[in-house]
Amino acid sequence: MNPAPQKTVKRGALKPHPLPKLRSLIRTEQEFNAEEMARIKRGFIPEAMEDKWFIYFSRNRLRFHRSWTGFCVYVAHFKPRQDNFVLSLIEANRDAEQYTGKEMPATNKWFFT
User: Fold this and answer.
1) Whether 6 contacts 65, CB under 8 Å
2) What spatial distance separates the first Cα and last Cα of the chain, rounded to whole Å?
3) 104-107 long-range CB contacts below 8 Å, 24 or more apart?
4) Which residues pair with residue 53 across a beta bridge?
5) Alpha carbon distance 79, 99 (integer Å)
6) In this structure, what DSSP letter does residue 106 have?
7) Across 15-68, where does the E strand assignment appear?
8) Would you state the pLDDT for residue 81?
9) Under 8 Å CB-to-CB from 57, ≥6 apart: which residues?
10) What pTM does this model have?
11) Are 57 and 43 in contact (CB under 8 A)?
């Protein structure tokens, strides 16, 4: 039996805050094929208290928000390249009043591993 297809998350599912001006830019060149991008574009809606993230894809950007506060913590920028997409830039929230999580990456290695 096949599982029900996962719905794609839209921005309106949560009242997210924009990424603050205090941020760092992490340059990268990580390529994803069409199947991987289809999964990435679905995003994630938290279903339990333990789920910390609300994630949605819009205008070639994957946005990561804290589920309880709505604060934007990461914005991952994708560019189309032939039949694939390339993750080219990650913007990371550095406002300690919004996010002090220890999992903040210093590089792009934290993403999609």
Assistant:
1) no
2) 28
3) 104/73, 105/26, 107/26, 107/28
4) 66
5) 27
6) S
7) 23-32, 53-58, 61-66
8) 94
9) 8, 9, 40, 41, 42, 43, 63
10) 0.79
11) yes
Q: Which helix (H) or strand (E) holds 37?
A: helix 34-42
Contacts of 12 (CB under 8 A, 6+ apart): none
Reference 76, options 37, 26, 113, 35; nearest CA is 26
Sign of CA dihedral 26, 110, 3, 84: positive
pLDDT of residue 107: 45
Can you tell me the mean pLDDT for 65-77? 93
Any idea how long the chain is? 113
Predicted confidence at residue 63, as pLDDT, reads: 95
Q: How many CB atoms lie within 10 A of CB 64?
A: 23
The residue whose two tokens read 């804290």 is: 66
- How many Å is the maximal CA-CA distance in the chain? 48
User: What are the tokens at 68?
Assistant: 């309880």
